[in-house]
Specification:
This protein has helices spanning 23-30, 120-129, 150-160, 202-216, 274-282, 309-322, 335-338, 437-447, and strands at residues 44-47, 54-57, 99-102, 108-110, 136-139, 144-147, 366-371, 377-382, 386-391, 396-402, 407-412, 419-423, 426-430, 454-456, 459-463, 471-477, 483-486, 492-496, 505-509, 514-516, 528-531, 537-541, 545-550, 555-561, 569-572, 579-582, 587-590, 594-595. It is of the alpha+beta class. It has a 6-stranded antiparallel beta sheet, with no helix packed on it. A 4-stranded antiparallel beta sheet has the order 7-8-9-10, with no helix packed on it. The longest helix has 15 residues, at 202-216.
Length: 596
């Protein structure tokens, strides 16, 4: 049976998909209690590398980022998909946390600050300024404010007046009696009861007679009651289980075999000298290494009886009687089995020999590429001065953005919907418009905070407004930018300028539109900088050294020496403190040990 769905809130019975949550369901859950949850900011620590104040958060919560088509037009709540996937549990469990649940990818859904989160004065001002304040409800499960449409308000008004919520329902329609309670003259079924329901079954009679005949002939014998054997228990033990009749026998250890020193004609090197004989006689019996001295006899019949035979046998009996024995499991293992078995090169074939997806739209060299958090979109830039955003599964170009100079580096923010592109001495920050609607709106609010030109030391900030290509902000530096890297929380952007001697590294705060110079003096020509993915470490790569700085202690914690003359780039492992360097002819991996 297939039921066609009407509108966006219908049910598709053919595929078994449940309808999305409507604004009415959200309103009914929150119309009687308007308790709001306030978000919490991440912890921050003050850092000072060059005398100025620099704040870098130690921990940051990642929000949901799912690619999809973004539309600026208002869409109803019926068409929105469920972001919070925690199920039907009380939302009060998340009052002490800075998130309200988890999305379909397992990332945390961060709390959004509502207009009703403030005090009584803020609520009064919002009530006066917002004409839709009386019909705005807060969805605690999704963490957003919803303005109820006129249709939902009409339904709520009917429910408050104890009326039927359906607008077209008539409770006083005439009753139609489809079935009558009067007996019909000609019923549909009037068959009398059969006779077989009142007599014994012939099949059961045959089965019972068969069992009786087998018992008379002795084919089926009843079970005889066997007398139970008495069970004896140990009165001196705490165990209630009966003791096993045949316990496991543990054989006695064997005596060691005699050696050359016990022979009646030992070699000359086993015979003790006079000094060794005197030393053995002066030593206590408990401290002697052996109970006899080797002696030499010409033949076996000259050997006298052993004087310590009875003593040693008696000690042997005491050891067997008093010393407990226990079974030990020995592992007979080949040392070669402990080594991992590497596959043979011929077993790894076939190697990749065909192209799965080809991204061919650039003219000239491509200098930098990067992907978003889910890996569904790729951004690239190069010699043709065009910034392109691709769909990784098909190789289709989604958008093209023309920049005034060659693009040397591009980086996609893993938290916000933000892409940074280095073009000469300028860094452009744009919103590609791909991903979750909530993330896109929060990114636009974050980037629209800059309204005027702001000049700071070593750079200048310029607002670009709501550009059609998505460009929101540009940062102009004193030298050409060679490399970019984002912090794990998504608010900090580190910029590397190899040609600059006074300021080779700058760290920009996108949220506060400020810049910070972490080092007063550069030790060598800096090639690249990187943030650690999970720890408060800052990696600085020069030509021959990798310096690791702790952002909490504000000090250098490690210095790695490369066995190369010129290192060009660096990559940090996601979970371990391992750096991978690339040079002209070698790869170098550095951690506690060094590998080449």
């Amino acid at each position: 049976v297939s039921t066609q769905s009407t509108g966006s809130s219908g049910i598709n019975a053919e595929y078994g998909e449940p309808p999305p949550i409507s604004a009415l369901d959200t309103a009914l859950d929150t119309v009687e209690h308007f308790s709001l949850e306030s978000g919490s900011e991440s912890e921050e620590e003050d850092l000072d590398f060059g005398g100025d104040e620099f704040r870098v958060p130690l921990s940051a919560e990642n929000t949901l980022f799912r690619p999809g088509d973004y539309n600026d037009s208002d869409c109803s709540s019926d068409e929105e998909e469920i972001r919070n996937r925690i199920g039907n549990i009380p939302m009060e469990w998340y009052d002490e946390y800075d998130h309200i649940g988890y999305d379909i990818h397992g990332d945390k859904v961060v709390k959004t600050k509502s207009a009703k989160d403030g005090d009584q004065l803020d609520k009064l001002l919002d009530r006066m300024d917002n004409p839709d304040f009386w019909r705005t409800v807060h969805n605690k499960r999704e963490g957003e404010d919803i303005v109820l449409p006129d249709e939902d308000m009409a339904i709520i008004e009917k429910m408050r007046s104890n009326s039927y919520p359906d607008l077209g329902y008539n409770p006083y329609e005439p009753y139609i009696d489809f079935f009558t309670n009067e007996r019909m003259d000609t019923p549909l079924v009037d068959t009398p009861e059969p006779k077989r329901r009142f007599i014994p079954s012939k099949h059961e009679h045959k089965k019972v007679m068969k069992i009786i005949r087998a018992m008379r002939n002795g084919w089926i014998k009843p079970k005889e009651d066997t007398p139970k054997k008495p069970v004896y228990f140990d009165l001196w033990t705490n165990k209630t289980e009966p003791q096993k009749h045949n316990p496991m026998h543990i054989p006695a250890p064997k005596l060691p075999l005699p050696g050359n020193e016990e022979s009646y004609n030992p070699p000359a090197e086993y015979l003790p000298s006079q000094e060794e004989r005197d030393q053995w006689e002066n030593t206590d019996e408990a401290d002697r290494s052996q109970n006899f001295l080797p002696q030499k006899y010409s033949c076996l019949r000259h050997v006298p009886a052993y004087p310590q035979l009875i003593n040693e046998k008696f000690d042997r009996c005491l050891d067997l009687y008093l010393c407990p024995r226990k079974m030990k499991m020995k592992l007979n293992m080949n040392p070669d089995d402990l080594l991992p078995k590497l596959p043979k090169p011929k077993d790894l074939k076939p190697f990749p020999s065909t192209k799965a997806v080809k991204f061919s739209d650039h003219e000239g060299h491509v200098y930098s590429i990067d992907s978003n958090k889910s890996g569904e979109f790729i951004v690239s830039g190069g010699e043709d001065k065009m910034l392109r955003i691709w769909e990784s599964s098909t190789g289709r170009v989604l958008s093209k953005i023309a920049l005034p100079d060659t693009i040397t580096s591009v980086k996609w923010n893993k938290v916000h919907s933000m892409v940074a592109a280095a073009c000469g001495d300028t860094v452009y920050i744009l919103n590609p418009g791909l991903g979750d609607r909530v993330v896109l709106e929060s990114t636009n609010k974050l980037l629209q905070g800059l309204t005027d030109i702001q000049e700071v030391e070593h750079c200048r900030w310029f607002p670009l407004g709501n550009d059609k290509d998505g460009l929101r902000t540009k940062i102009v530096h004193n030298s050409n930018v060679s490399n970019l890297t984002w912090h794990n929380n998504g608010n900090y952007l580190a910029v590397t300028m190899r040609d600059s001697q006074s300021c080779p590294v700058l760290i920009h705060n996108v949220a506060k539109h400020s810049s910070q110079k972490p080092f007063n003096k550069s030790k060598g020509q800096i090639q690249q900088v990187e943030f650690h993915p999970s720890k408060p470490f800052f990696y600085v790569l020069s030509q021959r050294y990798v310096r690791v700085y702790n952002l909490v202690k504000q000090a250098m914690v490690r210095k790695l020496i490369c066995s190369v003359k010129w290192a060009s780039c660096m990559a940090i492992h996601l979970r371990e403190t391992i750096s991978l360097l690339a040079v002209t002819t070698k790869l170098w991996c550095g951690s506690t040990w060094t590998y080449q």
